[in-house]
Specification:
With 536 residues, this protein is an alpha+beta fold. It has helices spanning 2-23, 32-89, 98-106, 139-143, 197-247, 262-311, 318-346, 358-375, 394-410, 442-447, 457-462, 469-479, 505-530, and strands at residues 110-117, 123-128, 163-171, 178-188, 354-357, 379-384, 389-392, 417-424, 428-435, 483-489, 493-501. It folds into 4 domains: 1-28; 78-196, no CATH class; 262-338, Signal transduction histidine kinase, dimerisation/phosphotransfer (DHp) domain (Helix Hairpins, Orthogonal Bundle); 351-511, Heat Shock Protein 90.
Length: 536
Amino acid sequence: MQDSTTGPIGRTGADETGARSHTRSGWGNFSYTTRVTAAFAFIAAMTALVAIGVVSFVWEQHFQTYTRANMESLAKKTADNIATNYEKIGAFDAQTLAPAEYVVSVTPGIGVQVATNGAGGIREIVFDSTQVAVEDAHEGAANQNLLGNNIPSLAPQKNDTNMETANIVVTDKDTDVDKVVGSVSVYVLGSDTLLRTSDEEFRNKSYQAMLFAAAMAILLASCIGFLFARNLVRPINRMTTTAKAIKEGDLSARTDLHGEDEIARLGETFDAMADSVEKDRELERRLTTDVAHELRTPLMAIQSTVEAMVDGVFEADAEHLETVNSEVQRLSRLVDSLLKLSRLESRSTPMKEEVVDVGQLIAGIIATHDAFVADSGLTLEYAADDGVLVLGDADMIRQATANLISNAVRYTPEGGRVSVSVRRGDLMASIAVRDTGIGLSPEETKMVFSRFWRADAGRNRESGGLGIGLAVVKEIVDRHGGWVKVEGQRDEGACFTINIPLYDEAKNLKLRQQKTQRTTKAPKEKQQKSRPKGRK
């Protein structure tokens, strides 16, 4: 059975190890600091990319609107100036067209075209900055500022969206009516978006500035991510180093982390765990030493007595045989106590669940221990409330109380007093055993339920104690869902109080009904699962 189980488990472990080593490849091979730094850089890059995309889209729309508005304003202003000159001169001569010449001269990359509304609505071009190169070959036309419509021009076609046009409007002096005598068109040479060279240069530099800002943001985010990850990993590395030191046997290693954040609290919890491990290891060493000593003492007494009788030093009489017998009984009690404690801790001993009248139960214990207490020169007192009922194992409760009484008698000098009381509280039943003995210090009260623990090992050994009784008491009370409280002062006595939940008949009846329902339901479900499935 074990062989068939062990094989698959081993293969599964190997498969899991292979799977873990497989998943560690690639990104998992980098350190946490590297991964956090890369994550910060990636987030900054994505943020910068989105920001540049959004800003570029909005920038293009607003920039084109801005440049088109400038061109429209320039065309309108030029048309107004030409209209003013035309009203004075009455013809499109060089002086009238001077504003167009001025715009071309002061605004590089701008093209200006002036057209008139001739007779019959025929449009005549009287000025075109892109035809200046051919004016010298047509001096007569140049003198009249009238250029042929068939001469090649770089100006866009009329009504093209790549040029802005403003009408030249003058007022007739005779009729005082406004009339359109021509139009001024402004455009940008070689641009479909009315962007001049300076505008495009400004736009390109803006994009370069955005890219530079994105690179700086990524670099800054990487530095912040690196510092953040390093500060985050530092306490984790400290805990790793501490755990490694503890693994190698240095149980005094601690992280010494303190603070309010999660990692600091984890470090404090880790240190508390290390303190507990160190304390348990010390108790384990002490337990091993005490067990060895407790076993060695009766064994040495038995061995020395038997060897003496074999060698003829002692006679095999009743006195020496009684010595051997008492040591054997002591050894038997020690082994029996250890066995009981082990069974209680492992829950291998079943616990009876019955309604127990604690007052009557403890009264029987008092009756059996009265002579024992009197022989020790002590006074035994007992007081109990009526009707104190609990649900539990009467034998276990009896054993726990007897251990407390024996412990009180053992540490109370002659002439002292041991008092036992049973009280009914709101939720708990209490069994208190108080003595006027040597007492306990506050530090000793924290360790008193540990196995083989003793404040004074010699005193405990002389009085015949095994150092296990109180540990058995604690395990019994824990199994009943209660707790043990210990109070005391040095040289003023001690008080051990067992607290066990009171018996609640209504609650217990409900629990029994639920348990019965689960018990009856389980066989039905099991029977349904075991039925063969029919064919479909």
